[in-house]
């Protein structure tokens, strides 16, 4: 579904992505972990060209990611994105946030979009908040709305960029539970996260990044019990002992 080949990315003199080669199969959940500043979020954001790349190629469902324009917008519509900071439209109701994309981009009728939107809000457990505005919801509820909004476009893949890092601890599980359900339903997902429990429970594969490179990738059980690189051992030693 997603193929990154020899991808390079610089921010000025800083080489943030170095020779990234990654393939994500249809229905696969790939969790990207690693220390801060390792390039995880940048990798995630290049998949729908929120960040451009300097070299290499990225294809989604067999199509090369275009540079810009209508072709990029069309392909981007197939790639859902859930951000750390929710990014909901503050002046629109919860239901309006979810229906905006399908109406504007997918050209769905308002009635059909509302019907589908309510189903999705129910699926993520916030259908009773449909007429409220984002500021009236908790962080966990807002993030679940953001997931519903991504799903409303019927994406082929959803990217999650640290979706729980802005949440209070007691709200994290309500978002992760929705993500685990999506994983079980076969949604293709690339998830940048610090939640090791989610990685163990829902990932088909864990990709460990450090210093802009993919250092190691393996099935969760293998990675967490028997990491191969000293960098991964050091990282896991620090986070799993706390």
Automatic annotation (TrEMBL):
Keyword rRNA-binding: no
Subcellular location: Cell membrane
Key words, A-Z: Amino-acid transport, ATP-binding, Cell membrane, Membrane, Nucleotide-binding, Transport
UniProt GO MF annotations: ATP binding
Topology term for the membrane: Peripheral membrane protein
Top-level taxon of the source organism: Bacteria
One Pfam short name: ABC_tran
Family to which the UniProt record says this protein belongs: Belongs to the ABC transporter superfamily.
Domain ABC transporter: 2-236
Membrane listed as a keyword: yes
Species this protein is from: Ammonicoccus fulvus
CDD domains: ABC_HisP_GlnQ (cd03262)
Descriptive protein name: Amino acid ABC transporter ATP-binding protein
């Amino acid at each position: 579904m997603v193929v990154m080949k020899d991808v390079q990315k610089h921010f000025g003199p800083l080489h943030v992505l170095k020779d990234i080669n990654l393939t994500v199969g249809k229905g696969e959940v790939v969790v990207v972990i690693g220390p801060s500043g390792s390039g995880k979020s940048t990798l995630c954001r290049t998949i729908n060209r929120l960040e451009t790349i300097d070299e290499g190629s990225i294809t989604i469902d067999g199509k090369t990611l275009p540079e810009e324009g209508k072709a990029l917008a069309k392909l981007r519509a197939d790639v859902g994105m859930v951000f750390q900071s929710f990014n909901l439209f503050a002046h629109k109701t919860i239901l309006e946030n979810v229906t905006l994309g399908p109406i504007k981009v997918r050209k769905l009728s308002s009635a059909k979009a509302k019907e589908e939107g309510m189903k999705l809000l129910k699926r993520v457990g916030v259908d009773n908040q449909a007429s409220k505005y984002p500021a009236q919801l908790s962080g966990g509820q807002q993030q679940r709305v953001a997931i519903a909004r991504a799903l409303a476009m019927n994406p082929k893949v959803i990217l999650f960029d640290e979706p729980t890092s802005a949440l209070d601890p007691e709200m994290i599980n309500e978002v992760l539970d929705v993500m685990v359900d999506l994983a079980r339903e076969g949604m293709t997902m690339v998830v940048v996260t610090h939640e090791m429990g989610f990685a163990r429970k829902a990932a088909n594969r864990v990709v460990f990044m450090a210093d802009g490179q993919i250092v190691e990738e393996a099935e969760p059980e293998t990675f967490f019990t028997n990491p191969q690189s000293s960098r991964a051992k050091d990282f896991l030693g620090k986070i799993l002992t706390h």
